[in-house]
Amino acid sequence: MNNQRSVRISKNLAKHLRHEPERIGLTLDAQGWVPVEELMAAAARHGFRFSRAELEAVVVGNDKQRYAIEDGRIRAQQGHSVRVDLDLPPAVPPAQLFHGTVVRSVSAIRDEGLRPMSRHAVHLSPDRETATRVGARRGKPVVLTVDAAAMHRAGHVFRVSGNGVWLTGHVPAQFLQFPG
After folding, report:
1. Are the beta carbons of 69 and 36 closer than 8 angstroms?
2. pTM, rounded to two decimals
3. Which structural domains are found in the chain, ordered by start?
4. Phi, psi of 114 (to 5 degrees)
5. pLDDT band at 101, cuts 50/70/90?
6. Between 120 and 40, whose confidence is greater?
7. What separation in angstroms does the CA of 133 have from each of 39, 116, 125, 139, 140?
8. What H or E segment, with its residue span, contains residue 72?
9. From CA 36, how far away is CA 56, in angstroms rounded?
10. Which H, E and C letters describe 6-61, residue by residue?
11. In this model, does residue 62 exceed pLDDT 80?
């Protein structure tokens, strides 16, 4: 399968497993899972066919491990705008986490901290390199350092998704270190 096809399948999965399952007639369970066969049938009914082998190649080959397949079901690991409970237990974060953004967002972040926006949680990276890649998707990246240890001590709850992305409800500005 070529890279263009892989990207197209991955974007289709993101749209329907994270944001608009109803658009193709899917109903995610409370934890965001849907049977693989239901997903494939719904996508085919709406003009986008892919094989089980292609789906599995996208899931396994995704550099960010965005999706998980388990017991004949599939879900997005995080990033949902639809209501799901990923059933992730609270976790003690490392001392520092990182968030990749772009220059045009820094002023608002200084004022308001990091907010989940249309998602359920703020996404944080375990290392600076990953945060840089995340920020670079929308322009020149700016990497913010999060004092996760201090946040945790202050009572903020962290969870970690199956692909290593750290999730929390909000990062107040006082816990952020800005570059420069």
Report:
1. yes
2. 0.78
3. 3-76 (1.10.10.970), 96-177 (3.20.170.30)
4. -95, 125
5. very high
6. 40
7. 29, 19, 10, 10, 10
8. none
9. 10
10. HHHHHHHHHHHHHHCHHHHCCCCCCCCCEEHHHHHHHHHHCCCCCCHHHHHHHHHH
11. no
Instruction: Assign 162 to helix, strand or coil.
Output: coil
- Render pLDDT for 114-146 as a digit per residue (tens, 0 to 9): 999 878 899 999 999 999 998 998 889 999 999
> Angle at the Cα of 19 (from 113 to 44), degrees rounded to 5?
160
Dihedrals phi, psi of 101, to nearest 5 degrees: -145, -165
Q: Please, how many CA atoms are within 13 Å of residue 42, restricted to the half-sphere of its CB?
A: 20
Q: CA–CA distance from 9 to each of 78, 94, 119 (Å)?
A: 17, 33, 21
Measured at the CA of 167, the angle between CA 174 and CA 96, to 5 degrees, comes to 50
Pick from 113, 124, 93: which is nearest to 174 by CA? 113
Tokens coding 51: 């094989």
Residue appearing with tokens 């990182």:
98
